[in-house]
Structures are given as C-alpha cells and as structure tokens.
Design goal:
heterodimer, A: Four Helix Bundle (Hemerythrin (Met), subunit A), elongated, disordered N terminus, B: mainly alpha
Chain lengths: ~200, ~575
C-alpha cells in the first residue's frame, strides 16, 4: 500500500460551528416573520376600507395589562435562561413558572377582549374587513402564544421531575429564542392594531 | 505545522458492503420509517419522478386537445382542470421535491456529515410533502363534495381572486388545492430550516464557507430564499380558507376586499419561487460542468456572490407579473428596472460557465450534454425574460403563448435539463450502477429536439396573438399548423421521458458497476462507497481546499497551495 505524505496546514485549528438548534430556530423565525409580514400588510392595506361598521376606533380598547404581562415574560424567561446555565434549578423552575403565568394572563386578556367584541359589539370574523383582518392577525399571534405556552409547560412539567439541568441549557435557549420572537411580534401587532390603526 | 502519513486506501473507503436481503415487507417497513437522509432523498426523487410522468401526461392531453382547431378531446371544464393540475403539480410536486431530494442526498455527503441536522424532522417533512400531493390528487375523487360540481381544481395555478371565492368556486376542489399547498408548504419550510441548519452547523473540520462546493452553497441560498418565499403563499392560502370557510372578506370584492392584493401576495411567492427552482439547476451545472471539462470552476467567489445577489434581487421583481393590472408608472418603471437587474448576476454565471469550458478537455457524457443544452437554452430564456420585463412589450404579449414559451424555456429548458443531468451524474453514487449511456444519448437527443420543436414554435404562436388558457380556437386564425407542430414536439418529449424512466429502472438491475468515483470527480461524496453506508463516512473527513478529493489524488499538487 502506498502512503502519501500530507502537509496539513490546519490540523491544530479548532473547529467550532454554531449549534444546530439555534440555527434551525433562527431560520424558522425568519420564515415566520415573512408569514406575519403578509398578515400585517393585509391589515394595514384594509384599514378604513370596511363597507360597514363597527370601526376599530369604536370598539378597540388598548390591552395595556395583557401587553405588560407578555412583554415582561421575556424578562422572566431570560432570568430562567441565566438560571439553567448556572445550574440553579429551583430558581429556573420559579422563573419558568412566572413566564407561564404571564403568558396565560396575556391569553386571558385576549380571550376577554374577544368576548367583549363578539357579544357586546357584534364584531365577528365575517362582519366586515376590519373583523376579518383583526381576528386573523391577532389570532395568528395568539396561536403562536399557545404553541409557546405548550412548549414552556412541557419543559416545566419535566423540570418538576428533576430531569432538567444545565446540560439542557442550550435546548432551553432554543425554546426561549422562540418565546422572544413571539414577544417581539406582539410589539409589531400591538403598534399596528392598537396605536396606528385605531 | 505538522506532517503525517495518510494511506490512500484508508482515506478512500473501499470496503464492499453486503447487506442481507430482507423480505419485501421488511424492506418496505425500512423505507417507510427511515430517517436516513439518503433514503429520504431517493424517496423525494422517486416521488417527483412519478409526478413528472403524471403532469407530463396532463400536458400531453392538453396538447392533443390543442393540436387541431375546434377539437373535442377535452371539454372546456376538463381542460381547465388539466392546466391547473399540470401547473400546480409541476411546481409543487415535481420541482420542489426534486430540489429537496437532491439537497437531502448530496448536501450531507458534500460537507462531510453523517446525516442532516434534524433527521426526524427530515422524515416528517417528506411525509408532509407526500401527503400534500395525495391531497391534491384526491380532489379528483372528493372535490365535488355534496354539490356535484367539478372535481379537480380549475382555478389555474395562480388562482386569481375572486374566482376562488365560494360564490364562484363552489364544492371542495379549491379547498383541496389550498390545503394541499399549505400542507406541502409546511413540509417545504421544515426542509429549508433543516438544510440551513445542516450547512451552517454540520460541516466537517476545515470546510469553511468559502471551501464549500458550489452545489451546497447554492442550496444554502435556495433554502434561505425558500424561508421567505413559501411563507407568504401559506399566509395567502390561510386567508383564502378564512374567506371560504369562516366568511372572511380578504379577497371578497363585494365587501371591499381586493383581488389585486391576492395577486401581490401570490407573486411575492410566485416570482422568487422561480429562483428557488432555477438556482438548484445552476447548482447541478456547477458540479457537472467542471468535472466533465476537467477544470476547476472559474470564478468561484463571483459565483457565490452572484447567487446571493440573485436571492436579494429576486425578491423585488414580483409585480412584473402584473403590468397589465394598471399600476402607477413609477411602479412599472421600478419593476422593469429591477427585473432587468436580474440579468446581471445571471449573466456573470453564464460567463463563468463558459470560462470554465474554455480550454477544457470536454467529455460529452449524457449529464454534460444536458448541461451544455441548458447553457444555450437558459441564455434564450433569459433574453425573452428581459424582453418581457419592458412594460409596454409586456402589455402586448401578456397572457399570450409568448409568456408560456418563455417560462417553459426556464422551467424545462433550464431546470428539467439540469435535473436530468443531476440524475445521470449522481445515479451511480446512489445505486452503485451507471445509467446506460446509449439510452441516455437517445433520451437527450429526442428530448432536446422535442423541446425545441415545442417551445421555439410557441414563441411565434404568442406573437401571432394566441392567448393562454383557451381550450380551443377557430380554424381561421392562422394558428393551426403551428399548434400541430407544438403538439408533435410534445409527443417527442413524452417518448424521451419514457426512455429515461425505462433507463432509470433497467440500469438498477443491469447497469455497469460504477465504483466509488466513476467520473473522476473532486468533492467529498465521491470518497465514500457507492451506495454510501448508512453513516456515510467511517471517519469524518478533514478538508483543506474546495476539491478535497483532488488533494487526495494529487498530493504533489494540492489545491490549497493556490487558494487564498
């Protein structure tokens, strides 16, 4: 057998690549952003084009409490990320529990808002263009919150059994990345629907 | 700096693998539950080859109907269903699965990885795509619903509103169309995420971004473009379903909704989609052309830059599909100029391929023949594209057969030709057998002759004013013999594709044994055995240049001495 001498200029160079979980989630977020962009564009384009009432200014109230809950949940999940990296599991479970509570509170505020709009103001998805675009945009975001809530709750339940520790911190970071995205989208949806469009 | 010895027989895995043959059920089970990127890649390719035959048969029926004036082979309704299904199938069930089949099979091998980043997601997204195809074709059975109207969707592949609204398209046909595209769209999104994560995070040591084979580079670009291309379509389909099922008004012109909004959303998807399909064709040409002219690709960094450039430019050209809608002159000017801009990076690519061929020792094997035909045809397709980017020209020829001829020149003349090249090129790697060259040459020459008879002639039909999507025409229009010629060309292409399918099956059992590296190529997939073992590489390779296998074969003259 012949042997060939190989001059190997980079043998000692370390080889580090970004984690696949984070890269995959970032790619998904890019795709999701395009999805939301289309719904936001539709909402903005159809502002004031409804042929009949009710109009946004007549029925929408700014959901300050729900927004505060959702945005502060980004802070609590960030605390949970720090905790799991340092292997402080009690603190992790507490901050994760707080995140879940805040997310549930946000969903509750959306549910109450929709209940008022449907039963009190008579606005459904088929009433007019405002109803169609409002429920689909806010509903699309709420669907993402529900998915995030399911992810967080399953991590929470597993962490109660004591199986989660700092070795899973990178995976939890992927879930947290998704959650930060859901929060960031709300800033856009909130501004478009309740500040610009009202 | 270190110096060490690496025996060639260890660097190139030459083990012969003998796997015991299980029963049919065991094999079937193995293929259904597989998470192996190579098996999934083959499943994608077989799936899209099957639908290529189905959609090809639909096209032939369309051409038989149009071969003679006032023909009654297909009724107007059936004709509408067939051109809708032909278009939808070719884009979503043939083009996309071919792209992802090649990506699945080749990318992990080329970057020296053992599998994709998320193997189970990979299997899941394949079955989503497959289920989407079944859903679309199930409409032939279930589309009528309780209304007893229509069966397969007949709203054309762009499905302009308000034709798709419930009042104009009762029954379930349009719902099957929308659901099929949403389901396969999720599959596509997942696969794109997977390919990106694989290329970013799974490269073997030494495989820096500027050492990646161009095929992998272009698939990275394609996947990034897919992320922002397929999601607007999904969004628009969700809106359509909200309109149809929940009484929404997105595209309901009676309630203030806008049909134009659908056009914008659809073409924001639809135009970048062309590049999602054509960039993999470039990717295949990037691998095949250098190997068969025995030269490294010319202008590697320019090729990468041009691909990334195409990705960005392609996202700002969509409304050139809408010049006749009546946009402002500023919009018309913008989309004319941005569309012309696409010609710059694609032109760079064409010149680089020609420069690669220049002075090379060209071997005219079947894959190379397909790539050379691709070069000529893509130049023509690009030129007619530039013609139509000029808004006043487009006003004259919009919705005529000139447009059909142009985009089939891209989709068939460039993409399908390169897909054939890719299959002839990598078939020996996937099966261990070479495809028959004689049958391959028959396939190529019949296909290229049939292609030109059909699609060159179609340009003239368009210039003579024949509109698209009509199921028949009057005999006094002067289109008769041209239409007949177009249909004859279609039949020749049909024969060529049947020869290809026969070759594909026959070579599996009777083909020549290929060996690991039948083409004397330079990228990592040719270092492992044919077919590769489940784990691809016994030891993860380490690369130092763009052509690692060249370095192994020519240790006295390795590439890294010349690459910066």
């Amino acid at each position: 057998m012949s042997s060939v001498p190989l001059y190997n200029p980079e043998r000692t160079v370390d080889w580090h690549l970004p984690g696949k979980g984070r890269v995959g989630m970032s790619a998904l977020i890019v795709g999701e952003s395009a999805l939301f962009t289309i719904f936001v564009v539709a909402y903005v384009f159809y502002l004031g084009k409804s042929l009949s009432g009710p109009k946004p200014s007549e029925v929408l109230e700014v959901p300050i409490l729900g927004t505060i809950c959702l945005l502060s949940s980004s802070l609590t999940i960030w605390r949970a990320e720090r905790a799991i990296e340092d292997d402080r599991m009690a603190s992790f479970t507490a901050w994760l529990g707080a995140t879940i509570t805040l997310a549930a509170a946000f969903l509750m505020s959306t549910a109450l808002e929709w209940r008022k709009l449907i039963y009190h103001d008579g606005l459904t998805i088929s009433t007019n263009l405002f109803g169609t675009t409002f429920y689909s945009l806010v509903g699309l975001h709420a669907t993402h919150v529900v998915v995030g809530l399911l992810l967080l709750t399953s991590v929470f339940l597993v962490s109660l059994t004591g199986w989660v520790d700092s070795r899973q911190s990178e995976r939890f970071g992927v879930v947290a990345l998704y959650w930060h995205f859901v929060d960031a989208v709300w800033i856009v949806v909130f501004s478009v629907v309740y500040l610009i469009g009202r | 700096m270190s110096e060490y010895l690496l025996p060639v027989h260890e660097a190139v895995d030459q083990t012969i693998y003998e796997t015991p043959r299980g029963t049919f059920l065991e094999n079937l089970h193995g293929w259904v539950v597989t998470v192996d990127h190579k098996r999934l890649g083959i499943l994608y390719i077989l799936y899209s080859t099957f639908f290529l035959l189905v959609a090809g048969a639909e096209a032939l029926l369309i051409r038989i109907q149009l071969a003679f004036p006032r023909s009654h082979v297909l009724s107007a309704q059936v004709y509408n269903r067939f051109f809708t299904m032909h278009g939808t199938t070719m884009v979503f069930l043939v083009g996309m699965p071919f792209v992802f089949g090649f990506a699945n099979y080749i990318v992990p091998l080329q970057i020296g990885a053992r599998d994709m980043a998320f193997p189970r997601l990979n299997a899941f997204t394949f079955w989503l795509t497959a289920f989407g195809g079944l859903l679309l074709y199930y409409s032939f059975l279930g589309g009528g619903g309780l209304y007893g109207v229509g069966n397969a969707p007949d709203v054309s592949w762009w499905a302009y509103a308000p034709l798709t609204e419930r009042s104009f398209s009762p029954g379930h046909a349009t719902d099957y169309w929308a659901l099929a595209l949403i389901v396969s769209g999720f599959g596509t999104l997942g696969t794109a995420v997977n390919i990106i994560a694989t290329i970013i995070s799974m490269r073997c040591p030494g495989m820096t971004l500027m050492r990646m084979p161009l095929f992998t580079w272009l698939l990275l670009v394609v996947s990034m473009l897919t992320l922002v291309t397929i999601t607007p379509l999904t969004a628009a389909q969700l809106m359509l379903l909200i309109d149809r099922y929940l009484g929404g008004h997105f595209f309901d012109t009676q309630a203030g909704g806008s049909a134009q909004v659908w056009m914008h959303f659809f073409w924001i998807f639809g135009h970048p989609e062309v590049y999602v399909l054509v960039l993999p064709a470039f990717a295949i040409a990037n691998e095949v052309i250098p190997v068969f002219c025995r030269k490294a690709i010319f202008g590697y960094p320019a090729m990468v830059a041009a691909s990334v450039g195409i990705m960005f430019v392609s996202y700002s050209v969509w409304a050139h599909h809408m010049f006749t809608v009546g946009m402002t002159s500023v919009s018309n000017a913008f989309f004319t100029l941005s569309t012309m801009l696409v010609g710059v990076p694609t032109g760079i690519k064409i010149f680089n391929w020609i420069a690669t061929l220049w002075g090379g020792r060209i071997r005219f094997t079947t894959p190379m023949l397909f790539c050379i035909a691709f070069l000529f045809q893509f130049v023509i397709a690009g030129l007619t594209g530039i013609m139509q980017s000029v808004a006043p020209w487009d006003w004259q020829l919009h919705n005529s057969y000139f447009v059909i001829a142009h985009f089939h020149y891209v989709l068939v003349g460039a993409i399908v030709f390169c897909i054939f090249a890719g299959i002839y090129f990598w078939y020996p790697k996937a099966t261990g057998k070479l495809m028959n060259e004689t049958l391959g040459k028959w396939h190529f020459w019949l296909f290229v002759i049939g292609f030109h008879i059909t699609f060159d002639t179609m340009h003239f039909l368009g210039l003579l004013g024949m509109p698209r999507s009509i199921y028949t025409y009057q005999p006094d229009r002067g289109w008769n013999w041209l239409n007949f010629v177009v249909s004859v060309g279609g039949l020749i292409q049909g024969v060529a594709v049947l020869i290809f399918a026969y070759n594909l099956i026959r070579s599996y059992s009777q083909g020549e044994i290929a060996g690991d590296d039948p083409w004397d190529a330079w990228t990592l997939e040719w270092t492992t055995s044919s077919p590769p073992p489940v784990y691809n590489f016994e030891e993860l390779p380490e690369v130092h240049s763009r052509r690692p296998l060249w370095d192994l074969k020519h240790p006295d003259d390795p590439d890294w001495e010349y690459e910066a």
